[in-house]
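Changelog-linked ticket: magnesium ion example.
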Amino acid sequence: MLKQKKSIVGLDIGSSCIKAVELTREKYDYVITGYAQVDVANEAARQDAIAELMRAAKFRSKRVATAVSGKNVVFRYIGMPEMGEDKLVHAVKLEAEKYIPFDVNDVEIDAQKLAVATDAAGKTEMKVLLVAAKKTVVADHARMLTELGLQPVAVGVDGFALGNAWELGDLVHPGIQDPGRTVALIDIGATKASINILRDNVSCFAREVPMGGQDLTNAIARRLGLEPAAAESLKRDPGEQLAVVQEACGQTLEDLGNEVNLSFDFFENQFDGEVQEVWLTGGTALLPFLEESFEKIFEKRTKTWNPVEGLKVRSDSVDVEALNQLAPQLAVAIGLAASS
Ligand SMILES: Nc1ncnc2c1ncn2[C@@H]1O[C@H](COP(=O)(O)OP(=O)(O)OP(=O)(O)O)[C@@H](O)[C@H]1O
Ligand SMILES: [Mg+2]
């Protein structure tokens, strides 16, 4: 019998742009069999935009993996006695009340084991990342997708999706990532930056910073006295005004970079290791001067990450040129598809 091919659509519903990538498992390969993205003006336009995008993309599968984010999702680092993964989520649920600002009955809770640390007295403690999302948010999200005729199979968070996309890269392209390295993945969207720090391909830290490309557009608009739409166009295609745009973005990038640096400090204190390199994704990573600006602030090797590298692409159903051009913006969508 032929082995069934499994396809899944990673649907990254960003605040400014919806990205969908269909990933199909074929024997030992992961193949991108569909791709579409569309900008959305505001939240009210979102559901129609998703419907339109799914119609236009003609994916073979209706199974979608998505993520929730924002103020209704919290991350906490907690210490627990050492135990197996199977018991962990249950144990964390019992403890969660102490750590989260919501009633535990109102949230979905997930937990990920990070590292095991031994203190001076020889007592071991497991570091655990707890993620709590309001049940109403997860349910509304799933309902919206079901109403569109889609089949939601997983709801995750952007930070972990990034980690999954990175692991997929390692799987399909062994050797491009040195073992033992500590890397920071940073996805900078319109309103937020999601950070995920991995040591030896294991996620150790995830956080969201509420800053992004929208702040850059606002800074350009203020500095040059432009309307927001004109500032947005200039940012995306500065032409001869590149130096002016870069200058206008300087302070905002510095502020964002400093916030990210605080996360690096936290990680380095908690995990006794140094972030060695930084990989940038998200729409804002399309800025031509982002690598250079951040490399100066972080004082670490900083590169734009292409999450499509190493994956096969079905060219009869995918606009390969658009996919390659916008690849850095697709890390979350690819990671969502890869995690299910
Ligand atoms: N060519 C470009 N150059 C610079 N910035 C760009 C470019 N194209 C898109 N952007 C910016 O990228 C951002 C959108 O990126 P992305 O799709 O990752 O965000 P999002 O997922 O919608 O946002 P969020 O994750 O914050 O909800 C916008 O702020 C947009 O201005
Ligand atoms: Mg995003």
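Closing comment: Example verified and attached. The pocket of magnesium ion (ligand 2) is lined by residues 12, 14, 158, 189, 282, 332 (CB under 6 Å). The chain has a mean pLDDT of 91.
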